[in-house]
Amino acid sequence: MNFRRRQSEAPEINLIPFIDVLLVVLIFLMLSTTYSRYSELQITLPTADADKLAERPAEILVSVAADGRYAINRVPLDGRSIELLTAALTRAAGPAAATPAASPVVIVSADALAAHQSVVNVMDAARRANLPRLTFATQLPADAAAR
């Protein structure tokens, strides 16, 4: 008979099953998570709520229609090229475009459905015509217009 006392072994914690379970949970979370897709953003532009200026400098109003047609000071242009737009902006600015401080403000009034490229063309034409002061026309939000 063996009456010797057995030495009790310290209990071991087996970490391998624990790590396996954590990896399964991690894989499940990675597969079930939905990521936002920027191509699905629904945005509505433009609206702004700002105070109007008391004194207005000289202005050139450039309108951009939804189909990409341009009008400068409510006079429609015959084409859609940047060169034609640059020449029309230079004519509308007159001699004031020679000095940047006295140059008129180009106000881009684009339809909310106008192509982004059409607005970029107006910005490029204003740069080529030495008209550095550029702003965008917006409308008041529906709730602010009712006030």
Automatic annotation (TrEMBL):
Designated name of the protein: Biopolymer transporter ExbD
UniProt-recorded Gene Ontology molecular function terms = transmembrane transporter activity
- Chief localisation class: membrane
Compartments, as annotated in UniProt: Cell membrane
The portions of this protein that span the membrane are 12-31
Whose protein is this, by species? Answer: Pseudaquabacterium pictum
> Which UniProt keywords are present, listed alphabetically?
Cell membrane, Membrane, Protein transport, Transmembrane, Transmembrane helix, Transport
Specify the protein's topology with respect to the membrane: Single-pass membrane protein; Single-pass type II membrane protein
Q: What is the lineage of its organism?
A: Bacteria, Pseudomonadati, Pseudomonadota, Betaproteobacteria, Burkholderiales
Instruction: Output the Gene Ontology cellular-component terms.
Output: plasma membrane
Claim: Protein transport is one of the keywords in the record: yes
Superkingdom of source: Bacteria
- Tell me its family: Belongs to the ExbD/TolR family.
Its GO biological process annotations read: protein transport
Which PANTHER family does this entry report, sorted A to Z? BIOPOLYMER TRANSPORT PROTEIN EXBD-RELATED, EXBD MEMBRANE COMPONENT OF PMF-DRIVEN MACROMOLECULE IMPORT SYSTEM
- Xref: Pfam families: ExbD (PF02472)
List the InterPro entries hit by this protein, alphabetically.
ExbD (IPR003400)
Keyword Protein transport found: yes
